[in-house]
Design a protein that fits this description.
Blueprint lengths: L2 H20 L4 H18 L5 H12 L3 H15 L8 H12 L19 H23 L9 H11 L6 H8 L14 H10 L2 H14 L3 E4 L10 E5 L2 E8 L9 H13 L4 E6 L5 H8 L4 E4 L1 H9 L10
Parallel strand pairs: 3-4, 4-5
Antiparallel strand pairs: 1-2, 2-3
Length: 320
């Protein structure tokens, strides 16, 4: 019986949040508000438990004056719900709906709670969720007076929507000292190119490899030199996250089955759409057999890598 009131409340809250963002006095404040909404959506979609999500959401609300303004306006409107434009049936159901929702530590999310610190986390967690936050951002983006000011941030949020399934650790790593891809100068002669790739500094090799994804129109990031994710670079495909592992091996040092099995686990762990293993050598038969058992991994040996320098790859993964 509470589903219809909850949906009506969700739509009402989307309007409340969107109007509060649009009423901010400066473009910088609106930018901060959009960033806050994007960060909140990440937290809601993460693997954190409920108390941890609440803690992170509270910290975000306290982090910016503009966000505090939005929270104050929204919680005040919720407390004064009787004066809102909600249908009468929803106004009657609202107190019971909130009181019936268990919250952290057994504290109920009653109307009175919205005067305190748990108000906005309750609204985000219970009524809005990731889809509701996206709806708020879209509502703001449709306002022609605001859209030009937040175009770049809106694009980031929309792009990030493709990463919703990616693990919390991966998204954190993408923000921690990201390095841009960079194509290194290489000789045109094939034999010389093979030698140059094998002699390339490992980190420069990673940046070089990721530059092909960037050139194909995929936003790409190289991870910092030391991480424990088993990933050297990320690319954002229309279908989701691509993870890349680079192996700058000598010609006689083939990539074996254990590496592929471990990387398949990395793809699963980080909920990536697809994975690439790129090497300056080749792959053992066992490695290729292991990779063939999954449609979500592509092996790029030295022959394929050389061909990338001749004809740029497009990374069309629509067939698997």
């Amino acid at each position: 019986m509470l589903d219809l009131p909850r949906e009506a409340i969700r739509r009402w809250l989307v309007d409340l949040f969107a109007n509060a963002v649009k009423r901010l006095s400066s473009s910088e404040d609106r930018l901060q508000a959009i960033k806050w909404l994007g960060q909140s959506r990440e937290i809601l979609g993460s693997d954190l438990n409920l108390p941890e999500k609440v803690g992170h959401l509270r910290a975000l609300v306290d982090s910016r004056t503009a966000v505090k303004f939005i929270a104050a306006r929204v919680t005040e409107s919720v407390q004064n719900y009787r004066k809102s434009n909600l249908p009468l049936a929803v106004k009657i159901a609202l107190p019971a709906t909130l009181a019936a929702l268990p919250f952290v530590g057994g504290q109920a999310a009653g109307i009175a709670a919205f005067g305190g610190a748990i108000g906005v986390p309750v609204l985000l967690l219970v009524f809005l969720g990731t889809a509701g936050i996206t709806a708020i951002i879209e509502a703001v983006a449709r306002d022609p007076s605001v859209r030009p000011e937040i175009a770049e941030i809106i694009d980031v949020i929309i792009e990030d929507e493709r990463l919703r399934q990616a693990s919390w650790r991966v998204k954190a790593a993408m923000r921690e000292q990201p390095v841009d891809p960079e194509r290194c100068g290489t000789p045109e002669d094939e034999d010389s190119l093979r030698i140059a790739l094998c002699k390339m500094d490992p980190f420069r090799f990673e940046r070089h490899v990721m530059s092909f994804f960037e050139s194909a129109g995929l936003k790409s990031i190289v991870t910092r030199k030391s991480n424990d994710l088993g990933v050297d670079g990320f690319a954002i495909h229309a279908e989701g996250l691509i993870v890349v592992q680079c192996k700058r091996n000598s010609a006689d040092n083939k990539v074996g089955r254990p590496t592929i099995q471990q990387f398949k686990g990395v793809i699963e762990e980080h909920r990536a759409f697809h994975g690439f293993v790129v090497t300056t050598s080749t792959f053992s038969d066992e490695a290729r057999q292991s990779a063939s058992m999954s449609q979500r991994i592509t092996l790029v040996d030295i022959h394929s890598l050389v061909s990338w320098h001749v004809a740029a790859p497009t990374f069309d993964l629509s067939q698997g």
